[in-house]
Amino acid sequence: MDLAIDYATVLGCKQLNCLAGIRPNTVSEEQARRTLIDNLRFAAEKLKAAGILLLAEPINTRDIPGFFLNRTEQALALFEEVGSDNLQLQYDIYHMQIMEGDLAPTIEKHLSKIGHVQLADNPGRHEPGTGEINYPFLFGHLDRLGYQGWIGCEYKPATTTLEGLGWLDNAR
Predict the structure, then answer these.
(1) Is 154 a catalytic residue?
(2) Which position among 29, 57, 81, 108 bears the catalytic label?
(3) d(C-alpha 47, C-alpha 50), whole Å
(4) Fewest Cβ atoms closer than 10 Å to its Cβ: which of 68, 92, 119, 170?
(5) For 19-64, what is each residue's pLDDT tens digit?
(6) Which of 120, 140, 116 is CA-nearest to residue 60?
(7) Domain ranges, ordered by start, for the chain
(8) For residues 131 and 161, is the Cβ–Cβ distance under 8 A?
(9) Domain 2-171 is in which class?
(10) Which of 52, 56, 47 is closest to 90 using CA atoms?
(11) Crossing angle for the helix pair 103-110 and 72-82, nearest 10 degrees?
(12) What is the pLDDT averaged over residues 132-143?
């Protein structure tokens, strides 16, 4: 944690993501859950003292089978047990489209607990406009809801990097 805080401080990073990872076969579901809660509690306190927000991100189980944290409600229930005001959701639209769908109502319901939004289209994890997700609607929805944070782009361009950024011209 100390090294992560040092790096974040030097880089001016105000948020760090804790990945839950994959539960080893030798660890029970309950033991993994307790360990994650304890680790999130520890990290949230350390990061709060440094002025850095802790994020945790559910990941879909198709791309990473066995990933421990994979749904919005599951993550928020864990956060409730952690009991920190320095822990929020990193809401990845791509992962949550695969795991739950119903993106707009979920974002609206939990916006106060979302510290960061990421995107990629589905299927293929390519740039917006290449798949099934209605990004113009979601961007407008986030604006209407008053989301003030960044939207991170975590996708694989369908062709070239430059062409993969073309969707931005229509997003403004």
Answers:
(1) yes
(2) 57
(3) 5
(4) 170
(5) 999 999 999 999 999 999 999 999 999 999 999 999 999 999 999 9
(6) 120
(7) 2-171
(8) no
(9) alpha beta
(10) 56
(11) 10
(12) 97
Helix (H) or strand (E) holding 138: helix 135-145
The runs of H, that is alpha helices, within 12-134 are 29-49, 72-82, 93-99, 103-110
- According to DSSP, the residues that pair with 89 across neighbouring strands are 56, 114
- Which tokens sit at 66? 């066995």
- Rounded distance, CA 85 to CA 80, Å? 10
d(CA 93, CA 103): 7
- Report if pTM > 0.90: yes
Can 132 be counted among the known catalytic residues?
A: no
Q: Give 77-120 pLDDT, tens digit per residue.
A: 999 999 999 999 999 999 999 999 999 999 999 999 999 999 99
| Of 80, 108, 154, 163, catalytic | 154
